[in-house]
Specification:
The chain has 287 residues and is of the alpha/beta class. The protein has 11 helices and 9 strands. The strands form 3 sheets. It has a 5-stranded mixed β-sheet with strand order 3-4-5-6-7. Helix 4 runs parallel beside helix 6 and helix 8 crosses helix 9. The longest helix is centred in the first third of the chain and has 21 residues. The C terminus is likely disordered.
């Protein structure tokens, strides 16, 4: 089975994170990272910490697939180890004011342990980190140039029903409607429907560990229909049109601005990229 790296291999493509970054976060940030290849000023701690959590949960689920017993202390120690390695791998991690490496290590131990305590022993783990590559096909049957490439955290089966599962941590409990509005289930269930490697009737589930003082585990299941898939492909087509014209704009009031690693480039964007000439007290478009 091909890995995510194999499928990406020098190949222009869309992914959930790329679509979400462009549509929901900031098209200019997308351009800085993915088109202009500007070096980020720092690594947001949320990115490094999320990678360490993912590594720990990946290990737990690989053990579950092998039907091996996993002890709580083992999981806690594993997270401490992967968190230390993640910090060594990532460059210039910027920590939030209310967090440091040791505090996050202790919190991560609790989150990984909470996950282990709440997994369903009756679920069958079918795959972990299952990569996919599918064409993006619009409502008229036209195939876009760039494919959709990504990876399911895990695929499980219980009572004959298959479920694509994504692992998340959250500072707060999710409102009930959030999973039904989210783009990730749309992208992943679209990929499942097109490839049939999981099945057209699969559902999507978020397994979320809430970062309370005593961590809380919650699950949210959602479905998608063809009309929602068509809406997603239209968003991608619109994004490609904007990219071709390089009509990127900053999302100055976005919630991700504070942790954006392209802040300096963004601050000078209107001077470096906006083609205007100041004439006296007025502003005139450049020829």
């Amino acid at each position: 089975m091909s890995t995510l790296s194999d499928l990406r291999a020098d190949r222009e493509h869309w992914s959930y994170s790329s679509i979400n970054q462009f549509v929901n976060i900031c098209s200019l940030q997308w351009a800085f990272q993915r088109l202009y290849n500007i070096k980020p000023e720092f690594t947001p701690v949320s990115l490094s910490y999320g990678s360490a959590i993912h590594r720990a949960l990946e290990w737990i689920n690989l053990k579950r697939m092998e039907k091996a017993q996993v002890q709580e202390k083992e999981v806690g120690d594993l997270f401490a180890d992967v968190w230390q390695r993640q910090q060594a791998e990532d460059e210039n991690i910027r920590f939030d004011e209310d967090a440091n490496a040791d505090a996050l290590r202790d919190q991560g131990r609790g989150l990984a342990t909470c996950y282990l305590q709440n997994v369903d022993p009756e679920e069958e783990i079918l795959s972990v980190n299952q990569a996919f590559a599918v064409p993006i096909i619009d409502a008229h049957g036209a195939v876009l140039d760039k494919p959709l490439i990504g990876e399911f955290d895990t695929v499980v089966r219980k009572d004959g029903k298959k479920m694509i599962v994504d692992w998340k941590t959250s500072a707060t409990r999710w409102p009930k409607g959030k999973p039904h509005r989210a783009m990730q289930p749309t992208v992943y269930l679209y990929a499942s429907n097109v490839s049939h490697n999981v099945g057209p009737r699969a559902e999507f589930r978020y397994d979320i560990i809430v970062k309370n003082k005593s961590p809380v585990f919650e699950q949210h299941i959602t479905k998608r229909n063809q009309d929602q898939f068509n809406r997603m492909t239209e968003k991608v087509k619109m994004a490609e049109s904007i990219i071709a014209s390089e009509h990127f704009t900053p999302n100055d009031e976005g919630m991700y601005c504070k942790s954006c690693p392209y802040q300096s480039a963004c601050k000078s964007w209107h001077r470096d990229y906006a083609r205007v000439v100041t004439v006296g007290k007025g502003v005139q478009a450049a020829a």
